[in-house]
């Protein structure tokens, strides 16, 4: 068991121990800054699976917001370098004709991540790309 898991168990069991010492669940929850339903959730977890049940075992991998596929991002980036003067809407419409569906705001987000949001920046990026590849 890692030290992080031990700290989680110690913190959660501390609430249960404080409630036992004070003899008052609501006061213990108020002191620790927990809602009372959290105390009862911890207590039922211990009743069902022992102290190890307090570990957050069912944590999901967080979803990244506004994430697009790498192929789509590469297509938007390469299209932006091929057609420097096209705006977000024009790029979105042209990619849609090629079967790549992305909104104009999605194009804008990719351009911001890739530092391609203005014509000047797209031009300097193209110059760097040509200098590197030859």
Write the layout of secondary structure elements.
Blueprint (H helix, E strand, L loop, with lengths): L2 H20 L2 H8 L3 H14 L20 H13 L5 H10 L6 H11 L4 H15 L1
Helix pairs in contact: 1-2, 4-6, 5-6
Kindly list the characteristics that best describe this protein.
DNA-binding, 134 residues, 2 domains, rod-shaped, 7 helices, 68% helix, mainly alpha
Please describe what this structure looks like.
By secondary structure, the protein is mostly helical. It folds into two domains: 3-54; 70-123. It contains seven helices and no strands. Helix 1 (3-22) crosses helix 2 (25-32), helix 4 (70-82) crosses helix 6 and helix 5 packs across helix 6 (104-114). 12% of the residues are buried.
């Amino acid at each position: 068991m890692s030290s992080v898991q031990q700290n989680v168990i110690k913190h959660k069991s501390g609430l249960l121990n404080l409630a036992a010492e004070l003899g008052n669940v609501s006061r213990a929850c108020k002191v620790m800054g927990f809602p009372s339903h959290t105390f009862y959730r911890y207590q039922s977890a211990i009743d069902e699976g022992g102290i190890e049940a307090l570990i957050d075992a069912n944590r999901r991998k967080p979803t990244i917001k506004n994430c697009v596929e790498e192929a789509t991002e590469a297509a938007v980036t390469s299209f932006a370098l091929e057609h420097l003067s096209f705006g977000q809407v024009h790029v979105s419409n042209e990619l849609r004709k090629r079967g790549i569906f992305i909104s104009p705001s999605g194009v804008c987000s990719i351009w911001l991540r890739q530092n391609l949001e203005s014509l000047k920046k797209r031009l300097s990026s193209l110059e760097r790309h040509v200098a590197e590849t030859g």
